[in-house]
């Protein structure tokens, strides 16, 4: 259950919450230098097994570093010293036989492959080489409901063409607190392992933010706090305020659109300002040890304009509404895209347009909200009209179920669906699933919600 605290502060909303991996944080050994610059392989293949099921993952390199990528390690006198980083080694790819799944990961500094498999609708396996080390969101909801936020402006999904045909890059900086960096069971004061965690987190972010929203995260400045006495986070209190001050004063030249502090608390929770991407307020404080990708994806989502339990989870426990699935629901995505458009209207927009993603990924099937359907009166619509593809492909309807949750009947003619609502005695919410397909044959399952009146 997410904890939530809201406070209005200089136009930014503070949200406390996010579910991450718990852990402890203690003093650790002195920082070690990063691994060498060996070239990353052109393809990685792993056969990942969980509970007797083996899936073959195939991934190819993908860029996840910003033009201004750099690594600074803080010394005992407080100085930040540039440190050489290993060659980029992020990967994105597919899962044999699963057209609705994708894989994202890295080749770590020790040569092992670590990543996640994202299934249709956002369930995940996390793996190292051939072994699953964790799962999340494998159970999908039994039903869906109409968005119910108190703020009616939130209760909307993305509209036709709203995501658009352009991919934009946004730069995320990482501030790695000494408590996180020196944890003996995870990073152990190793710069190489710290950079593994950063690279893994960014490519995992890409598997949601770019696939869902055509917003490509890229790692910018990475600050590693090598000595506790030299970091600005002593006492680990008021961390959100401290990280904002640090990056507004001492790191203002970094050009980051979002700053993620990994502070290594054992709670695994986080806190972030909402609706602030691209500004000095766009910071988050993220707990947990190792690679806290679950909490970080959630807290950065606040920076991007989505609130905790944004519209009370119409599609289940998506990133901002329970944080089980590695996807945004249609209402969360609508908020993110509206904030993107606001920023693109600035005199100097913070997000440069970049080349469309080349590695094939599944499309995004956006929530459909049909606000008024009369019992017994047929209506025609295109469920794919607000769907989109990060690869820029033209989408088509693959299938739709013939009966809805309340017993309505559905037929299709190409991309057009005809819905005959069931008889109801009061206003009711009905729903059905459908499948959209891109030109490469990759698929995504979407949800259509109908508000049926007698």
Give an overview in words.
This protein is α+β, with helices and mostly antiparallel strands. 14% of the residues lie in helices and 34% in strands. It contains five helices and 24 strands. It has helices at 178-181, 191-213, 239-249, 293-303, 330-344, and strands spanning 6-9, 12-17, 44-50, 53-61, 65-74, 80-82, 90-95, 98-107, 113-118, 124-128, 131-136, 167-176, 215-225, 258-262, 270-274, 283-286, 353-354, 368-374, 379-381, 396-400, 409-413, 416-420, 428-437, 443-453. The strands form four sheets. Strands 1, 2, 5, 6, 12, 13, 14, 15, 16 and 17 form a ten-stranded mixed beta sheet that branches. A seven-stranded antiparallel beta sheet has the order 3-4-7-8-9-10-11, covered by helices on one side. Strands 18-24-23-20 form a four-stranded mixed beta sheet, with no helix packed on it. A hairpin with an 8-residue loop joins β15 and β16. It is globular. Mean pLDDT is 92; it is low at 1-13 and 18-36.
Describe the structure concisely for a colleague.
This protein is of the alpha+beta class.
Q: How does the SSE layout of this entry go?
A:
Elements: E1 6-9, E2 12-17, E3 44-50, E4 53-61, E5 65-74, E6 80-82, E7 90-95, E8 98-107, E9 113-118, E10 124-128, E11 131-136, E12 167-176, H1 178-181, H2 191-213, E13 215-225, H3 239-249, E14 258-262, E15 270-274, E16 283-286, H4 293-303, H5 330-344, E17 353-354, E18 368-374, E19 379-381, E20 396-400, E21 409-413, E22 416-420, E23 428-437, E24 443-453
Parallel strand pairs: 5-13, 12-13, 12-14, 14-16, 18-24
Antiparallel strand pairs: 1-2, 2-15, 3-4, 4-7, 5-6, 7-8, 8-9, 9-10, 10-11, 12-17, 15-16, 19-22, 20-23, 21-22, 23-24
């Amino acid at each position: 259950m997410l904890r939530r605290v809201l406070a209005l502060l200089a136009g930014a909303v503070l949200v406390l919450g996010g579910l991450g991996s718990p852990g402890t944080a203690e003093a650790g050994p002195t920082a070690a230098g990063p691994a060498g610059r060996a070239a990353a392989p052109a393809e990685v293949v792993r056969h990942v097994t969980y509970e007797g099921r083996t899936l073959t993952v195939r991934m190819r390199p993908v860029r996840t570093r910003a033009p201004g990528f750099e690594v600074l390690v803080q010394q005992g006198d407080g100085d930040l010293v540039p440190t050489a980083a290993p060659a980029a080694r992020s990967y994105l790819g597919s899962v044999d036989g699963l057209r609705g799944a994708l894989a994202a990961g890295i080749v770590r500094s020790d040569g092992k492959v670590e990543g996640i498999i994202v299934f249709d609708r956002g369930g995940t396996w996390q793996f190292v080489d051939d072994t699953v080390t964790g799962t999340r969101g494998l159970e999908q909801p039994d039903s869906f409901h109409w968005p119910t936020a108190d703020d009616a402006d939130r209760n909307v999904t993305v509209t036709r063409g709203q995501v658009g045909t352009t991919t934009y890059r946004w730069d995320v900086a990482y501030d790695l607190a000494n408590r996180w960096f020196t944890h003996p069971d995870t990073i152990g004061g190793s710069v190489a392992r710290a950079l593994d965690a950063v690279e893994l987190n960014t490519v995992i972010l890409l598997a949601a933010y770019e696939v869902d929203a055509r917003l490509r995260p890229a790692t910018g400045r990475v600050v590693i706090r090598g000595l506790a006495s030299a970091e600005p986070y002593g006492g680990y209190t008021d961390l959100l305020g401290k990280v904002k001050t640090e990056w507004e004063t001492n790191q203002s030249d970094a050009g980051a659109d979002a700053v993620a502090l990994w502070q290594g608390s054992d709670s695994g929770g986080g806190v972030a300002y909402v609706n602030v991407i691209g500004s000095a307020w766009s910071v988050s404080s993220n707990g947990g040890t190792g690679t806290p990708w679950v909490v970080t994806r959630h807290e950065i989502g606040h920076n991007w304009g989505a609130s905790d339990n944004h519209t009370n989870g119409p599609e289940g426990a998506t990133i901002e509404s329970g944080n089980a699935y590695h996807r945004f629901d249609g209402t969360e995505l609508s908020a993110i895209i509206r904030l993107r458009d606001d920023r693109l209207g600035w005199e100097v927009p913070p997000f440069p347009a970049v080349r469309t993603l080349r590695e094939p990924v599944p499309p995004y099937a956006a929530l459909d909200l049909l606000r008024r359907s009369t019992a017994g009166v047929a209506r025609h619509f295109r469920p794919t009209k607000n769907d989109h593809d990060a690869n820029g492909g033209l989408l088509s309807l693959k299938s739709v179920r013939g009966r809805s949750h309340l017993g309505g009947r559905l037929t299709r003619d190409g991309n057009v669906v005809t819905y005959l609502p069931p008889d109801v005695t009061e206003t009711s919410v009905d729903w059905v699933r459908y499948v959209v397909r891109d030109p490469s044959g990759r698929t995504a399952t979407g949800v259509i919600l109908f508000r049926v009146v007698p």
